[in-house]
Write a structure and sequence with these properties.
There is one protein chain. The chain is 75% helix and 0% strand. The chain has 156 residues and is an all-alpha fold.
Length: 156
């Protein structure tokens, strides 16, 4: 969101070449993730959660922040999302602050809801056959989104 607020969105909108490069990088990335997920280990299980090494909350937060900040999908999302909520005649810093706080708050609520749902469904989805089905479905969806991204044509 910070990169988009700093003007990357305007730069991408102004440069057809940069838009095309980001589009193809995003498409290839989605297809790569889809193939990786589709081919993931079908013997995966949730039974051995105790064997997972313990990491500190700050380490998890730092890793998640880095992954999110460097993810091209996030940048492309905010390029499309942010401009429609900005009033250029008004001070930008308060608008940016409201957008960041709102987005981070809603994203946190969303992540918490998914975590609580996953905890409730863990026993049902812990079977290897269900995990394989989820992996293949999720991988197929990512591949389809990558192909759709590649096929997307920019309106002039």
């Amino acid at each position: 969101m910070s990169a988009s607020l700093a003007g990357l969105g305007a730069l991408v909108l102004a440069s057809a070449t940069l838009f095309t490069v980001l589009k193809w990088v995003g498409a290839v990335y989605l297809i790569y993730l889809g193939i990786k997920l589709f081919r993931s280990d079908s013997t995966a299980s949730l039974d051995n959660l105790e064997k997972v090494t313990q990491t500190s909350a700050s380490s998890v937060f730092g890793h998640a922040t880095a992954v999110t900040a460097l993810n091209p999908k996030s940048i492309v999302f905010f390029i499309a999302f942010v401009p429609q909520f900005i009033v250029v005649d008004s001070p930008l810093l308060p608008q940016f602050a409201i957008l960041v706080v709102t987005f981070v708050g809603l994203a946190s609520i969303n992540a918490l809801a998914y975590a609580l749902l996953a905890d409730k469904l863990r026993a049902k989805i812990a079977k290897p056959s269900v995990l394989t089905w989820f992996s293949r479905l999720g991988g197929s969806a990512l591949i389809a989104m990558g192909v759709a991204t590649a096929a997307f044509k920019r309106s002039q």
